[in-house]
Every structure is written in structure tokens, then in C-alpha cells.
Design a protein that fits this description.
14 helices; single chain; 6-stranded antiparallel beta sheet
């Protein structure tokens, strides 16, 4: 008996051997739902004579399946059939209670299969799935689950940040007809599954693409497609969101059409898990991929700068201005300022304040879907002693991963999640027109982000410098109550509204604050 939205798994054994099984034979399994709907998925070679299929049933009742092998003479792989019973899920895990993620009908938010809104609060243990021990990974996941995180972004192959895993091995060898290192993925599988078990979406970068030595630039197109299809077959039955290519500057590298072809070949027109790209810093991908059938939401990276130019790109650039142009598509900042990361501009070490500021700005300058948090020690995942980041010469010595389990920045992210959970956040839309004046015009550090629910009943503003805010009363739709929320402590403070054309309000102190009027 398999519970709905969990994973059915079955192994097949080949009596024949192949020189390179990743390339020499393809195995598909066709699943027939109780309703008669048919879904065909790739099985994957799991080393030696083993092929394996993983599938997530979305209907309750009896399912049947049969295998189709490119080598029809292989009696262990071709022409097999079976069945299993799918029951309703009875636990408390929201991923299985509500089902896989999909783009909402408004095209600006993300919901579960049953329509329940999903708030993306992700962490970036980029190296964690490759480097963590089982015990350490469990400890990490318990912390992030308690802290309110709903996703984790990680890398699936060797990449800029780590050329080999902690056993000195790579995911594959070669650049064209690659040879897969299957034990590498045996070690990753339980950690990917564990994310789901803790109620968190797994968000793997399939192929990192920043440096010439990264798979995204090194692999031939055929090899990139083959590797990405393998990862989809291996993990696609889990509750995942695919970040197809990581840290790519696609226009600069002349690779837009390449990645469009890879996306079409891997995901086609019909896919049951969300897909996006993770671009390099301050690179906007909507024009490049927004109309692709496999591309579901805009992921962007506001990055690790603090110059006026960098800040203006976030609060006045594409994230703030392009969300409501066709095609409508959800928007998520997948890499804002990391805690303890040095600024690329000023060498300032980012603290909890910079993390909060980038996060609240990101959530209010476009319709909120969620945001990603990062910590220098977590993405590195140094296990026993502080290390220097590989291929990141400006970062310096980074502490061990466990120093980043509980930090002021993380406290702020937990409060951020609690704040938005109190609101119908999926109805909020940017509402700059509510402001009488925007102090960020002169200095982007003073930028006040304002959003309002579509019915006008709730207005939210983020004040990064604790400055006075002046709002047009007529734009507030008969406000009855105003409150200040302290994103550093979680405290609420009532404030007084007046019967004047303009509302001028001052927060309790000069730190950053959120104003809620309803």
C-alpha cells in the first residue's frame, strides 16, 4: 500500500551488461491511474545490473504499470508489469496532505495540488547534501523545520563550490559521453528523501553553470540532457522544485538557446514538478525563458552587494517592475544577502539586518511567493574546522556548518515566516501609490516597500531605517487599525490613525519596522 503523493519504488534486474548503461539503454515505465490517465516516466540505472523506478501516485485506488525498454531483448527490463494500491495519506506532513506544488490560477503565486498556498522559505545548504553525515543532516533538518523553513536549495553534481565530495569523488567523469558515478548518488538519496520527511521541498540545482570548469559549461548538450534526465528520474518522485542551471550568466555566455533546448528535452510540455533557473547575480531571466513551456517561475539572485547600484537593481529594477508584464509568472529571490558573507562592494560583513532588509524588500516589491536565506557557513558545509571556500577567493575563512544552526539572521527569518503566516500574503500586490513620498528616491537604503491586498483591506510597509512614513488616507480603504511589527523581536505595537487626507506615522525606534494597516 502506497500513500498518495509519497513514493512507489521498484527494482528491475538486467541479465545483460552494457559498456555504459547511462547511454546504452533506456527504460520507461508507463503507469495507469484508477481514472485511466497514463503517465510515462524514466527509470534509472542504479549501478551493476539494477534499474529502478520511482513514482509518486496522485490518485487513490489501484494503479497498474508496465515497462518499455529500448533493448526489447532484455528480458529483465522489457515487458514487465505489475500493480499497487494507493491509499489516502493520513499523516501531518503538509507536502503529502496537500500535494505537489504548482503555479496558482493567478499565475503570481504557488500552491499545492489542493489549492493551499505555499510560502517558499528556503535555505541554501549548497554543499550539504554532498558533504553532510547522516547524523549532521538530521540535526540540520530538525533545526530548519522548527525555524519555519519550507525548502532547501542544494547542488547535485561537482561544481564551483566543491570539485569533489568529502570522499574525494565526483558525480561523473567526462564531458561528452559521460560515465556516471552511481555510488555518489547512493549517498545523496537518503538526504533528499529526508528533506521531504521534514516537510521541506528539495530544490536541487541540476547543473551548475558559472565557471568554465562547471558542468553547465563543460558538458556537451547531449551530456547535459542525459545527466538532467537521470536526476529527474532519480528524484522526480520526491516533492522537488528543479533549479535546472545554477549561477549562469546566460546572455553573456551565449547559452540561452542551449538551455532552452535542454529544458525542452528534459521536461517537455508536461511536467509535474516546478522548474526554474538559478541565474548569476542581478541577472533577470524572464525575457530569456519566461515563455518556455517548462519554465514555471522566475528565480533571481539579488546577490551579495550593498552599493547604491546593487540596491537600486533590487528595489527599482526588474524585480520591482517586470512582475506584472506578460507573461505573468511568480517571482522568488533565490539568493539575497547571506548572513556573514562579505559585501562584494564594501567588504562589510552582512549581519541579520542586511538579511532582513533584502528579504522584506524582495517580498513586497513584487507579489510575495517567498524568499531564500543563506549563511556563509551553511552553504560551505565545513565539517571539522573552518575552511576557505573553493573558487571563492574573496570570502576568506568560513566557520563550520554547526555555527550557523541558530543565529540572529535565522531568528529574523523565523519571525518573517510568522509575520506572513498571519496575513493572506498571497493576495498582496506592490502598492507604491499609497506613499505620498518615497524616501528611497534619494538613497536606496531608505527605500520603503509597500504592498496592499487586492481588496484594499490590508496594507503592509517595510521601513528599513525606522523613518517616518506618510500615506494617502484615501488609498487605505477605510482603515480601522494600525500596528507596528518589530522584525527583530516579534513584538507588536498599536499606533493611532487620524482623520486627515494623509497619515504620517513614526515607528517606536530607529531600527527597521513593518507597518500593518487593516
Amino acid at each position: 500500500m502506497i500513500a498518495q503523493y509519497t513514493v512507489f519504488e521498484y527494482a528491475f534486474y538486467s541479465p545483460d551488461t552494457y559498456e555504459n548503461a547511462l547511454w546504452d539503454v533506456d527504460l520507461q515505465v508507463q503507469f495507469s491511474a484508477p481514472s485511466g490517465k497514463q503517465t510515462q516516466v524514466d527509470a534509472f540505472w542504479d549501478g551493476g545490473d539494477v534499474w529502478r523506478v520511482r513514482f509518486s501516485p496522485d490518485e487513490i485506488g489501484q494503479w497498474t504499470w508496465n515497462t518499455i525498454c529500448s533493448d526489447e531483448g532484455n528480458t529483465g527490463l522489457h515487458g514487465h508489469s505489475g500493480q499497487f494500491e494507493c491509499s489516502a495519506y493520513s499523516g501531518r506532513n503538509p507536502l503529502y496532505l496537500h500535494g505537489p506544488l504548482q503555479v496558482a490560477e493567478d499565475h503570481l503565486s504557488i500552491v499545492h495540488a489542493d489549492g493551499t498556498p505555499f510560502f517558499w522559505l528556503a535555505d541554501t545548504p549548497w554543499n550539504g547534501v554532498m558533504r553532510a553525515t547522516t547524523h549532521d543532516w538530521e540535526r540540520y533538518l530538525q533545526h530548519r523545520h522548527t525555524q519555519g523553513f519550507s525548502a532547501a536549495q542544494f547542488v547535485s553534481t561537482h561544481w564551483r563550490g566543491m570539485s569533489r565530495d568529502n570522499l574525494g569523488e565526483q558525480a561523473f567523469i567526462g564531458t561528452d559521453r559521460i560515465t556516471l558515478n552511481v555510488p555518489f548518488y547512493h549517498r545523496l538519496d537518503p538526504k533528499v528523501a529526508a528533506l521531504n520527511e521534514h516537510g521541506m521541498i528539495a530544490a536541487p540545482v541540476m547543473i551548475w553553470a558559472y565557471m568554465k570548469e562547471d558542468p553547465g559549461q563543460l558538458l556537451s548538450e547531449a551530456a547535459a540532457i542525459r545527466l538532467a534526465r537521470y536526476l529527474q528520474a532519480r528524484w522526480g518522485a520526491y516533492q522537488v522544485v528543479w533549479l535546472m542551471a545554477g549561477d549562469g550568466c546566460y546572455k553573456r555566455d551565449g547559452m540561452i538557446e542551449h538551455w532552452c533546448r535542454v529544458g525542452r528535452a528534459v521536461f517537455g510540455d508536461h511536467h509535474n514538478r516546478l522548474v526554474t533557473m538559478h541565474p548569476c547575480g542581478q541577472y533577470w531571466v524572464k525575457e530569456d525563458f519566461g515563455s518556455e513551456p517548462w519554465f514555471d517561475f522566475i528565480g533571481y539572485q539579488s546577490g551579495h552587494g550593498d552599493s547604491e547600484k546593487n540596491l537600486r537593481w533590487l528595489v527599482e529594477g526588474p524585480p520591482a517592475n517586470d512582475w506584472n508584464s506578460d507573461p505573468l509568472i511568480p517571482v522568488i529571490n533565490l539568493e539575497p544577502n547571506y548572513e556573514t558573507h562579505p559585501s562584494y562592494d564594501s567588504d562589510t560583513i552582512f549581519k541579520a539586518y542586511e538579511v532582513r532588509r533584502a528579504s522584506y524588500w524582495s517580498l513586497l516589491i513584487s507579489p510575495p511567493v517567498g524568499v531564500t536565506y543563506g549563511h556563509n557557513a551553511i552553504w560551505m558545509w565545513a565539517a571539522d574546522q573552518a575552511e576557505e571556500a573553493e573558487n571563492h577567493p574573496t570570502i576568506g575563512l568560513v566557520g563550520t556548518w554547526d555555527t550557523a544552526l541558530d543565529t540572529p539572521g535565522l531568528d529574523g527569518m523565523t519571525l518573517l515566516r510568522q509575520f506572513f503566516d498571519r496575513l493572506p500574503w498571497w493576495t498582496l500586490r506592490p502598492a507604491a501609490q499609497v506613499l505620498v513620498t518615497q524616501p528611497g528616491v534619494d538613497d536606496p537604503r531608505d527605500f520603503i516597500a509597500v504592498a496592499q491586498s487586492m481588496d484594499g483591506q490590508i496594507t503592509v510597509a517595510y521601513l528599513p531605517e525606522g523613518q517616518t512614513i506618510t500615506l494617502r488616507t484615501e488609498a487605505l480603504h477605510d482603515p480601522e487599525r494600525a500596528r507596528w511589527f518589530n522584525p527583530r523581536s516579534g513584538d507588536w505595537h498599536d499606533t493611532t490613525l487620524v482623520t486627515l487626507p494623509e497619515q504620517t506615522l513614526t515607528p517606536p525606534d530607529t531600527g527597521d519596522w513593518l507597518l500593518v494597516i487593516d
